[in-house]
Description:
Chain A is of the alpha/beta class. Chain A has helices at residues 58-66, 106-116, 121-134, 150-162, 180-197, 208-214, 248-272; strands at 12-23, 32-43, 47-51, 73-78, 81-82, 91-94, 168-172, 200-204, 217-221, 228-233.
Amino acid sequence: MTADRAGDASQVHVSLRNITRVYPAQAGQPDVHALGPIDLDLTKGEFFAVVGPSGCGKSTLLDVIAGLARPSAGEGVFEGRRIDGDVPDGIGAVFQDDASFPWLTVFDNIAFGLRHAGHGEAEVRAQATYALEFMGLKDFARAYPAQLSGGMRQRVCIARTLVLKPRLILLDEPFGALDQQTRLLMGDELLRLWRETRATILLITHALDEATMLADRVGVMSARPGRFLEIVTTHWPRDRDSTIVSNEAFGRLTSRIWALLRGESLRALGREQGVA
Amino acid sequence: MKSPGLLRAGLILLAVGALEVLCRTGIIPSLTAIPPSAMVASLVEILRSGRFAADIVATLRNVSISIAAAMLVGVLIGTTLQSLPATRRIFDPLFATYYAIPLYAFYPLLIVIFGLGDLPQVAIGFLLAVMAVIINTLNGLDRVPKVLLKAARVHRLGPVKTALKVRLPFAAPYIFTGFKLAVAYSFIGVIGAEFITSNRGIGYEISFAYNNFDNPVMYALILFVLVVVTTINMSLYVWEKRLLARRLR
């Protein structure tokens, strides 16, 4: 498959070539070909969403880009440097599972990365306070994560990430555990954050409407081993929000993605039930 | 009596009162036990006169050394082993049977190794206490959610920083349980060892008073140990509850 380029090549922020991930054979089971080959270029500042049937390797793809997992073959490049087994500077990530630190207050959670990076306490205070306000957490600065709802805790994780000013933000189903209304509102906040930080965002989601609503481009993946079947460009204006779901193009785009995915999802389902 | 606290206090008072009456009326002979009020009076006298000050200081110091060493070494061994799964598999069964070993049986050996000073007592207290810290440290570290370790990597924390800033803080409530046990085991180990062979310490003086039918001293020192251990454990319990209150989901 050829790489889909949505912009000028000089603006390429992340470049994946021939990325493959194979889990070696274990206990009489054959090798598991989990992902790829994947070719993808992310343009600087774009919002890219990945949808695909469960188990197609979406999260593995994110782990490879984040430097949390090594590809079995192929090469990933972030800002001109090879991604090689370590998390490169300038990348932030938010996961589906709550990653807030339960022993720290909301404020200290958000200040965690800043302190680790060695910023002075005055600057930590200023930056963390800004992030608290940006994510609507100002009144909860002294609360512990246990006192917050799931949506609020995920906001803490997003604030903790954005305060470090990452140039690439990776989101692995960050709203997967939230209810539909909260998800729509979190989507709005994400768009606002994306516009203000000018970061490149890669969002993994199982919610097709979420992908369509948020992204400039939606990469539709096949069942395992995950490959891009097609990359759908939404052509939304940069200044958009969740009201876009009432746009007639929204329904058309979502239907198109579903048409691409339906067969793959059935395949994934059949495979899970051993019908293959 | 509506709250369990009041009920508990009432029960203790009732038992103490009953003992007082039984002793005063001679149903319990004075050679067996003395009334609680006499125990308190004797303890006050002992503390005021400073008669056993050197023993009390020696015991509390040895217990403190045992606790501190067990905490430090226990957390270090636990953290190291948790990051070395292969080595840990070798030791796990040994840890599981550790408390089946009657440590006091090794007392002669400890005297041979450490001499007749305070060290054998400290060693017994430490050996009893350290395993509780190791086991609870391992247990806590095993429970660190994978996503927190991922978050640590995304924050570009190295292995040592990850242990200090993420893994150990997460495991803190479990390690705290180990510390509580370490306090109890250190008292048991040190005072028990003082009973066997030692020429000072609270355990030695209790044993000495027992052999000389000196019930006022014996019961006063027993009461002292009881009060100290209960106070420490209650304080730790309150502290632990406060720590856990913010963690409960």
